[in-house]
Amino acid sequence: MLKIKIKIKSFIWILPLIGGLLTLRAIFTPAAYYFESSGHLIFWMWGWYDRLGIWDYGMAKGFIYDPLILNIGIICTVLIIVGASIFIVNSISAAFIFRKGNRFTKIVLWVWFLCGILLIIAPIFWMAMVQIFPPFSPIPVGSDPPLNFWSVFFPAWAVIAPIITGALSCGTIILFKIIIVKSYKKANRKI
Fold this sequence. Notes:
This protein has a single domain, classed as Butyryl-CoA Dehydrogenase, subunit A, domain 3 (Up-down Bundle), CATH 1.20.140. The chain contains six helices and five strands; from the N terminus they run H-H-E-E-E-E-H-H-H-E-H. It is an alpha+beta fold.
């Protein structure tokens, strides 16, 4: 049983690494989308949109015109990129720490925890801001009752992946702490 715990502890860095890689990949995917038979509207967190024949507006591609949502989206995207990059670098350094036979330090766990919280908060903040200040008006014309952003659009991978990564990170730390505390208590009972 102790060998299984040692194996789990020595490979626990893989979850944040996978999460960081998935999150970096997700930045290039849409954050919100709307499809209907006449066309689509796809929206990226960093402000790019692609519209084709939706709501009788025709085809358009480009950055949104609302500077508030554009700036909030860019800031949230940068925070997600920084958090995911720190995950990747920290996970690789943790792998080298275990390869040398050393233990994790508390700093590694705190960095994973704080980056996980950052990756959860940034997309949720962006989702709240596009709900409060919708970048596309009207959404759609003549709706009764008036629709808000998330009643029309669906969240996509760019907002889902960072939340999953943050949850994986926090879950990894909880799992690691449970394994460490149980093995520490067991070792102290034998003495």
